């Protein structure tokens, strides 16, 4: 079903507000979920609305808590997320980082006591809009075995890098450290379907294409030992360094209903003007991209795209025509909205 993206964002925000979430927090959380869908990352999109609502209802997330700076080192900040929604915590943290980078040239922010924050690109793009370069990463509950293991030890810990290009499509590399984000497997399992070979192993350590078996088992690291090592680096920076949970101490969003997740994030924001005038930087990056696109193409390739360009094109198309959501997901959203007397946006 096609739905207007602004209507969908407002509908989801109203669901959260109906559940008692403050309006500003509800708006950010809903916006972050729709943003993921717009960029083709449905595993982190409005599909997550139900689990977010349940986490708040069960007291595992406190949407009223104040996100505060716990330690201020000038160009470094330690932010206490106070167990609020991860998207809200992430926005507050990156906005602090942007403001401080404009003062000092760069700012490193560590975040503790947060929750699942969706797509890292969402926060990177906020920095890009302010003429900054950014790196954002987060750890997550254990869903991935390290190289040589067969049980989950780390999360699919994502990292994103972003730069303004002076053009419509910014350069954004947003990636999980697994072959595929666990959310994509969860989405397949929820909607019914198989997964490609190489995504996951089952509980006995055997390769599987069964989404349900993969959920019970573990996803695999991207590039073997390289992805495994990178995930651990993200865990160290986001968890060990910040005082947040790390490794198996991070609580599952789906299975633990007694303790908050205690997710950690790590952010670096750089004011580009401290190195080059922003216009000079974007001119140079535009030349870099143009040179990239002129490279000889492999057989069957019509165009070479820079990181973030495919997602930007999806985002632009969906913003214009509406998001095409699966019928079961629409039914779930309608049911959630009905609890608060909300009507699904038609047409």
Topology overview:
Layout: E1 2-3, H1 5-18, H2 23-38, H3 49-57, E2 68-72, E3 76-80, H4 86-104, E4 106-114, H5 120-128, E5 132-138, E6 159-163, E7 171-175, H6 182-191, E8 200-201, E9 207-208, H7 211-216, E10 218-219, H8 225-240, E11 263-271, H9 278-293, H10 309-321, E12 323-324, H11 327-338
Parallel strand pairs: 3-4
Antiparallel strand pairs: 1-12, 2-3, 4-11, 5-6, 5-11, 6-7, 8-9, 8-10
Write a concise keyword list for the protein shown above.
Mal/L-sulf/L-lact_DH-like_ah, Ldh family oxidoreductase, three-stranded antiparallel β-sheet, 347 residues, 11 helices, Mal/L-sulfo/L-lacto_DH-like_sf, Ribosomal Protein S8, Chain: A, domain 1, Mal/L-sulf/L-lact_DH-like_NADP, oxidoreductase, 12 strands, globular, 2 domains, 40% helix, 16% strand, alpha+beta
Give the mean pLDDT.
95
Alpha-carbon Rg, integer: 20 Å
Any idea of the CATH class of the largest domain? Alpha Beta
CATH topology of the largest domain: Ribosomal Protein S8, Chain: A, domain 1
Number of helical regions: 11
Helix content: 40-55%
Oligomeric state of shown chains? single chain
SS strand fraction = 15-25%
**Count of β-strands:** 12
Low-confidence stretches: none
Give the CATH superfamily of the largest domain. Malate/L-lactate/L-sulpholactate dehydrogenase, NADPH binding domain
Whole-number total of structural domains: 2
Order of strands across the biggest sheet? 2-3-4-11-5-6-7
Principal-axis shape: globular
CATH architecture title of the largest domain: 2-Layer Sandwich
Strand-pairing-aware structural class: alpha+beta
Strand count, sense and closure of the main sheet? 7 strands, mixed
Cα separation of the termini: 10 Å
- Could you spell the SSE succession in H and E letters? EHHHEEHEHEEEHEEHEHEHHEH
Keywords: Oxidoreductase
Protein name: Ldh family oxidoreductase
Pfam family, one: Ldh_2
InterPro entries: Mal/L-sulf/L-lact_DH-like_ah, Mal/L-sulf/L-lact_DH-like_NADP, Mal/L-sulfo/L-lacto_DH-like_sf, Malate/L-lactate_DH-like
């Amino acid at each position: 079903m096609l739905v207007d993206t602004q209507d969908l964002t407002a509908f989801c925000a109203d669901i959260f507000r109906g559940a008692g979430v403050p309006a500003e927090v509800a708006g950010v959380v809903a916006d972050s979920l729709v943003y993921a869908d717009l960029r083709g990352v449905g595993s982190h999109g409005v599909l997550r609305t139900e689990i977010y609502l349940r986490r708040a209802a069960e007291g595992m997330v406190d949407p009223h808590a104040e996100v505060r700076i716990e330690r201020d080192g000038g160009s470094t900040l330690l932010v206490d997320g106070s167990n609020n929604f991860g998207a809200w915590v992430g926005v507050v943290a990156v906005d602090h980082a942007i403001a401080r980078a404009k003062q000092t040239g760069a700012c490193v922010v560590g975040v503790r006591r947060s929750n699942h924050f969706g797509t890292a690109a969402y926060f990177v793009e906020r920095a890009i809009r302010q003429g900054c370069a950014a790196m954002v990463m987060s750890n997550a509950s254990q869903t991935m075995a390290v190289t040589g293991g067969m049980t989950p030890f780390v999360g699919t810990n994502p990292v994103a890098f972003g730069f303004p290009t002076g053009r419509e499509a910014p350069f954004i590399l947003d990636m999980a450290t697994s072959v595929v984000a666990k959310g994509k497997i969860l989405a397949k399992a929820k909607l019914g379907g198989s997964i490609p070979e190489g995504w996951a192993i089952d509980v006995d350590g055997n390769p599987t294409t069964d989404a349900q078996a993969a959920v019970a088992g573990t996803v695999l690291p991207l590039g073997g030992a390289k992805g495994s090592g990178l995930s651990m680096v993200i865990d160290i920076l986001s968890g060990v360094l910040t005082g947040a949970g790390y490794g198996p101490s991070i609580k599952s969003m789906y299975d633990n209903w007694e303790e908050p997740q205690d997710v950690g994030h790590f952010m670096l924001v750089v004011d580009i003007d401290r190195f080059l005038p922003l216009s000079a930087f974007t001119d140079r990056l535009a030349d870099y991209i143009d040179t990239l696109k002129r490279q000889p193409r492999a057989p069957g390739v019509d165009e070479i795209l820079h990181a973030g360009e495919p997602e930007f094109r999806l985002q632009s198309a969906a913003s214009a025509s509406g998001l095409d959501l699966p019928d079961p997901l629409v039914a779930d959203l309608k049911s959630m909205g009905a609890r608060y007397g909300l009507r699904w946006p038609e047409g």
